[in-house]
Design a protein that fits this description.
heterodimer; A: about 250 residues; alpha/beta; Rossmann fold; 6-stranded mixed beta sheet; 9 helices; B: about 450 residues; 11-stranded mixed beta sheet; 10-stranded mixed beta sheet; 21 strands; about 20% helix; about 35% strand; globular; binds adenosine-5'-triphosphate; binds magnesium ion; ABC_transporter-like_ATP-bd (chain A); Fe-S cluster assembly ATPase SufC (chain A); ATP binding (chain A); P-loop_NTPase (chain A)
Chain lengths: ~250, ~450
């Protein structure tokens, strides 16, 4: 049984079909990359896995550790170990980053029947993660993502991921907005989390991220479906030839 | 609607004031009754007679009155209110009221009457005088009540005129010149219904003399099983360079109402900060009229409010720039749930002589449900060219993207909503520098917030 199994998923928004029969499986211990042109449905897929409201699932199922989570509340999915690193992390003024992260950890612990985290343990964790990700202390004291630069937002996502220790991580364009050094730092943060129990879905447009977070499998998503699945060399092929070959007849122009 | 009201307890029907002797009780508008002619000094009799005439001519405001277009008082006239008797309260009774809990010298008024046994004035600093009165105000209030702008205000504020005609009890606070009172003073003013619905007309007078400063904290609310209606007025007189900071919590029960009028007159370089939190109540109107009469005066009128199903909260603010180089700010934030109703009317007047005025106004409301409504009326009247004035208003809902982001980290939708409401209000308490007071305010906000959110989404 794979960690994540998506079968024939159809999802639409405002009656506009976006995912049109998507099938995909991510095994524990593996990194799966998803590449695809703008508007092909990559962020939609990640949102639907994380349980964002507003999408209508018209067909198909999403299974996580064998359980059908298709209609589950987003917080339940998070508590079960699914983490979405947002393509565009939301700025939330007035909510302090550290306070928020502590509430999130405690909410997840509570769901697992555990007590609240010791404050010293929490601070140690967050400080260590911040150091590894070269996030200054001052940023931890600020409001959640508010006024963070594009690159800071992405590193803050990896920091949250590090502290929350999820099982399935969906990285939606982790590399967008990151400079070369920040990209390396963020990728190292992700690689530190790789383990036999954990699975990753790494959405990107560029090989440069896959040089740093080396995938086991590469999928090509075009027009709401996985058009091709292969080994890492598929990404290189794509880099050379573009998406032209993968556009299905009825969708291309 | 033509409810007539029995005379105040202890007064006899034949004891009518000469000034009103020609009027029969039946012809009087709701809540008005003639006061007995007693030993009051002439200046007060004259003032009361004028106030009586103003309210008599105006009557209980209706929605046809421009200033009351969005707030309907007709239910008040339909409720059989009687003037509140002089009642007392024991310590347990006081505990059951939702008042701010922090340590400070405390004065308790019940239906306007000073309750000495619940008050604690032992730690008062030198230079402040706090005097409860129970029949007629002491002469020390004269300068505040007769002050031109405050007296003229009665023409514009019929409910303040009603209070002026009738008030018998209340509180006078005076701070001597140059004295800075360090500890906040806590005034608790409660309306109590004992036998049937009661209305009360408490009066508070605050006079800070030249260069004096004071931080006043007020907990306003109600107790008892029956409806109450408090028509309360606070007169604030700030002499040159005086600084008054008023922080107020209004927490009314679902069947209780309050019209809280503050009439403030600021002298040169005086400063008035008013932060009013209103949560709940069948109807609460927080009406603040601040006249900037001295050059360089500054008024900062702020508020946080919440209204749920069955509740109506009205903040009506009027800042009148008379003198030059004066500045003012109005900042209000409200959260509405269920079918809650709110009104914000913010007016800035800049008179001919008020050059160099800076007047700002901002109102933000967050609607937690489709059924909630807020009416907003900003008004700027500017009769001088040399001014910087601005106003803004926003009405929004909880941000779905933010909610999902928080939920995607494992927070329940309920906690996420609560965090976002808290975040919306978070900057409003920054101005409260006294930490124990700020914590008491935070805890009131939290209690209310949990109530309103659980009513939105009962678990
Ligand atoms: N709220 C919405 N309402 C209508 N259409 C939407 C909405 N959200 C997304 N779409 C549409 O769905 C399609 C897929 O969008 P999605 O964000 O999943 O693409 P993507 O593959 O992540 O693209 P990119 O590489 O640019 O991030 C697009 O055509 C987009 O315009
Ligand atoms: Mg995308």
């Amino acid at each position: 049984m794979a960690l994540l199994e998506i079968e024939n998923l159809h999802a639409s928004i405002d009656d506009k079909p976006i995912l049109k029969g998507l099938t995909l499986a991510v095994e524990a211990g593996k990194v799966h990359a998803i590449m695809g042109p703008n508007g092909s449905g990559k962020s939609t897929l990640s949102a639907v896995i994380a349980g964002r409201p507003g999408y209508r699932i018209t067909e198909g199922t999403i299974r996580y550790r064998g359980e059908d989570i298709t209609g589950m509340d987003p917080e339940k999915r998070a508590q079960a170990g699914i983490f979405l690193s947002f393509q565009h992390p939301v700025e939330i003024p007035g909510v302090a980053f550290t306070t928020f992260l502590k509430s999130a950890i405690n909410a997840q612990r509570k769901a697992r029947g555990e007590g609240e985290i010791e404050i010293t343990e929490f601070l140690k964790k967050i400080k260590q993660a911040a150091r590894d990700l070269e996030i200054p202390d001052a940023m931890l004291k600020r409001a959640l993502n508010t006024g963070f630069s594009g690159g800071e937002k992405k590193r803050a996502e990896v920091l949250q991921m590090t502290v929350l220790e999820p099982t399935l991580m969906i990285l939606d364009e982790l590399d967008s907005g990151l400079d070369i050094d920040a990209l390396r730092i963020a990728a190292e943060g992700v690689n530190r989390l790789r383990s036999p129990e954990r699975g990753f879905l790494c959405i990107t447009h560029y090989q440069r991220l896959l040089d740093l977070i080396v995938p086991d499998v590469v999928h090509i998503l075009v027009d709401g479906r996985i058009q091709r699945t292969g080994d890492p060399s598929l990404a290189l092929e794509l880099e050379e030839r573009g998406y032209g070959d993968f556009i299905p007849a009825q969708a291309g122009q | 609607m033509g409810t007539s009201f029995p005379l105040r307890q202890g007064s006899k029907s034949d004891m009518t004031s000469p000034a009103h002797s020609s009027r029969s009780a039946e012809a009087l508008p709701p809540f008005l009754y003639p006061l007995p002619a007693d030993t009051e000094p002439d200046w007060l009799k004259d003032l009361r007679a004028r106030a009586f005439d103003i309210y008599h001519a105006h009557g209980l405001p209706t929605r046809r009155h421009e200033a009351w277009r969005y707030t309907d008082l007709s239910f008040l006239a339909e409720t059989p209110f009687t003037p509140s008797p002089s009642v007392t309260l024991d310590r347990n009774g006081l505990e059951s009221a939702e008042i701010l809990s922090f340590s400070a010298p405390r004065i308790v008024l019940v239906n306007g009457h000073f309750c000495e046994h619940l008050s604690n004035l032992s730690a008062l600093e030198l230079g402040i005088s706090i005097q409860g009165f129970d029949a007629s105000p002491p002469d020390s209030v004269r300068s505040a009540l007769e002050r031109g702008s405050l007296s003229r205000a009665l023409d514009t504020f019929p409910m303040a005129a009603l209070n002026t005609a009738l008030f018998q009890s209340g509180l006078v606070i005076t701070v001597e010149p140059g004295v800075a009172i360090r500890t906040p003073i806590h005034v608790v003013s409660l309306a109590l219904s004992s036998h049937g619905p009661h209305f009360s007309v408490p009066r508070i007078v605050v006079h800070l003399q030249k260069g004096a400063s004071l931080s006043l904290v007020e907990s306003l609310g109600s107790l008892g099983a029956e409806p109450t209606f408090a028509n309360s007025v606070t007169s604030v007189l700030l002499d040159e360079g005086a600084h008054l900071s008023t922080t107020r919590l209004v927490r009314e029960r679902p069947d209780s109402s309050r019209i809280e009028t503050t009439l403030a007159d600021l002298g040169p370089d005086a400063r008035y900060d008013n932060l009013t939190l209103v949560f709940g109540g069948r109807l609460v109107r927080n009406e603040v009229y601040a006249t900037l009469n001295g050059a360089g005066a500054h008024a900062e009128v702020r508020g946080i409010y919440g209204a749920r199903t069955g509740e109506h909260v009205d903040n009506t603010i009027f800042v009148d720039h008379v003198a030059p180089q004066a500045t003012s700010g109005q900042l209000f934030k409200g959260v509405l749930g269920g079918t809650g109703r709110a009104v914000f009317q913010g007016r800035i007047n800049v008179g001919r002589g008020a050059s160099g005025t800076d007047g700002q106004q901002l109102h933000k409301a967050m609607l937690l449900s489709r059924g909630a409504e807020v009416d907003i009326k900003p008004e700027l009247y500017i009769y001088n060219d040399d001014v910087a004035c601005s106003h803004g208003a926003t009405v929004g809902e909880l941000d779905e993207d933010a909610l999902f982001y928080l939920q995607s980290r494992g927070l329940t939708r309920e906690v996420a909503r609560s965090l976002l409401v808290e975040a919306f209000l978070s900057d409003m308490l920054e101005v409260v520098s006294h930490a124990p007071l700020r914590e008491a305010l935070e805890s009131s906000i939290n209690t209310w917030k949990q109530d309103v959110l659980s009513a939105e989404h009962p678990s």
